[in-house]
Amino acid sequence: MNAIEFNVKLARSLYLCLNLILSVLYSYITVKFISVYNFPIYIILFITTLIEFFILLDTSYFKIITGIKTKYLYYMLIVFSIVMFIFKSNINITYVLIFYFVYYLLITIVLLNYNLFVIEESKSIKDGVTDISLYSNLSKLLGFSLGSYIYKVNIEEYLIVFIIVFVLFSSLKINNFKNKTEKNSERLVFNDLKRKYIIVNTALLSGTAVFFIPMFIKQLAARNLIQFSSIVFFIPGLTVVLFLILTKKYEINLNNILISYIILDMVFFIFVICKVFLPLQVILLSLIVALGVSISIKLRTNFIKINNKDYRKSIVQIFRISAPVFTIILSFVGLYVENIAYYILLINAISAIHVLYVNLRNREHTLLD
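Now predict its structure.
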């Protein structure tokens, strides 16, 4: 087989395929845990966040697994898939947990390498971050579209598909894959990071849908319309993808996006309180989520630019973990605070106002610099 020059286009394609596998895997395990083992849905999020946190620690400090070359990670995935296929007759909770943990860990490390490559080799950091967000959201959108078929698929069928995909990807003879993107960051000194508040802002602006989509689904169930629940997932995802495609073609001022976000956030808050027509609420939520993703892209781009390049791999992983961590924290708070989702809308508005204030105050050095 002739060697293939590794470029941003190929990296994006592989990133999309692996992210789709991860999205389908997440959906499958969620359905499995809820329907078979009666686990709370937040257990999956908690396990996933622990894996992401371990990857951050390994990237920044331990430097054990995340330093393994991508092709060897594929070999490990192939071997693991074969072992799991051999023991498929003994499927229980331990098997499912190991199945999810190892796949999520190894695939996420490969994705981290591709993620960093796209950011490093794109025309600009903003283009790279936008591409990663676009392909990540597109894979989630496709994953949710396949969601209705997930529970019908046996685990051995997944394993066969995984083995084929990983053998195919590992067999690609790829030249010039940047070794620096496979290496770990310098030991992260958190206090050295500039504008750390951006991590909090981006995390807060990413959690709205997590709390309101379940509320919408409950409303549909109460009206015997649960068959339309997939639309509640699909519309926000589609809106994000379309908005990201738009922002790739046209530059939109951050302040205008922030002002639009704040206004829509407060209108949505009023609509939810007043229980306005549900489809209108879904449309407004979709716009808020899309604007939130766009704001996060601009903030992450700025954060990557202004901080030490040697920390870049750790920074990419920090942004992967920040949103789930805040979601878990707010979920626990929600156990003791009634209607936590309403307060999250207010927190999001305050977060957006803070970013707008900082951006207007520092006109010479805005968050877009």
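The chain is about 75% helix and 0% strand.
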